[in-house]
Here is the input.
Amino acid sequence: MSTVAEMPSQNYEILPKTSETGEPIGELLEVSMGPQHPSTHGVFRMDVVLDGEKVVKLKPVFGYLHRNHEKIAENISYLSSMPYTDRLDYFCSMTNNWAYALAVEKLSGLAVPERAEYIRVIMAELTRLQNHTCLIGFFVQDMGALGTPLMYAFREREKILDLFESVSGARMMCNYMRFGGVRCDVTPEWLAQAKQLVDGYGKFLDEFEALFTENEILLARTQGVGVLSKELAVSSSVTGPMLRAAGVNYDIRKVDKYGIYNWFDYKVPLGEHGDTYDRYMIRVLEMRESVKILQQALCDIPAGPVMNPKAKLRGFRPKPGEAYGRIEAPKGELGFYLISDGSANPYRYRVRPPSFINLTILEDMCLGHRIADTVVILGSVDIVLGEVDR
Amino acid sequence: METPEQIKTRLEMAVPGAKIEILPNDCPAGERPLLVDSAHALEVAKYLCDDPQLRLDYCSNVTGVDWPETELTEKIKVKQVVDGVEKEVEELKKTVRPGFLEVVYHLYSMELKHGPVVLRQRTTNREAEAPAVSLTSVWRGCEFQEREVFDLFGIRLAGHPDLRRILMWDGFKGFPMRRDYVAPDDFEYEPTPHDEVLEQVQKHYPPEVKA
Here is the structure.
């Protein structure tokens, strides 16, 4: 039963010369970009129909990494899912942990000690710094700035991952937060190291920005490309930096005030045009705000316990009910929806993945642009396939 | 923001004929969901989105929940005549709740910055491709998530522009997120199988019949 004979000899197809309404158009070419294309940030495929170089249709195809994370989590206990959430968005395991812990805390009514809240904020903002830095590195790599900027980004990321490693034991798969606190306390030396890193980050950002922000190639490739209107962004549930680049003031840190975010002084940067350049710029500005939050948090962090003594790790059974907890992850709104039936395993466990939903409007942003622009637009969406496919 | 009761009263005024029920939620911090009948779900969604006091313009999360057929037991006091004396006796009454599937929507307002309102739809049964109504025409963000609900739960959402499988491949049979889904018989190849793997091998490749 070999299917080799049925496979097309080429990975493209020449389509008829008239559109669905019968109008004559140029010869259309259907190209399958991916799943092994380097610009797709993983195993992601775009079925693109081209008129010359112009995109007339684009359908994202994914699911290559699908392992049914939700089903797995429904068959294991609440705590066992915690290391599994690291693997969703493997760049930002700390924020994934936090979102899940927040949902379970809401479900079971657990309080979190003040020091643990501070540590959570510090970890989340460090995650945001490294995610945005790497994203910009990948983004300019997609435009042809091969290697060097990405290596600068990875150099800084590695410093942050070293901090994560020394506190949690793992660079990327941290598994650090627990229901009602965090797993272990940070040492004064760790805080001093973090402070040193944060104080130097502004200077790194200045250098990094000097490479790109007024770079002629970057301006030519990003300004006016992939414009996302305010109305479409809201109705299509786009969240995170993409939404704010479109000019909608919606940051869950400000709206929900989860954790202790209302104790800090920071601004929410907003874009004006909603194009790819704004999405780049928003991330730079957000990093500068993150540095501000980090400086305040590292200065104010109080002494005390990091775990609620009432929290049970073994035999944890929340009362029946349901809760939806969400946070502002670096990529957008990351939510966990949990239904408990009183047993040790969640009855329903749902992840609201930001990069999956941000892909909804990929076609709308790409239509009418050149095929080379789709790569840039996709890069500015900031997807991680571990989270898209789950 | 308004309580679920207030929203319910206003919805029943605005959408005549809509059957809305407030479901209990024992979690103290959780929101009580509004159950809406599929026939009026689209009108209710439009109203929630456009109403100036609510302005739920942002549909954050769409997902499905599977509730298989369950046997509920209730204690009921029944009067019985035992040895000529009337007595109250406790009896267990068993009722079977038919299975159904649910689609859950978490709605927020980006304009007024409040929420969430939890909206639910129920199907009448658990058949493959049980029908419900798609709300993609109101909130574009439901598009991929409703496709996922169709893919993993097998709920056919009428009115969806492009209802195909999204995470599983096109030829896949079955709905993996249902409670009664049985994982396929696949296992890692071992050159010298033993124990559980040997059992699976024998099940997977039945011994050849020798002529």
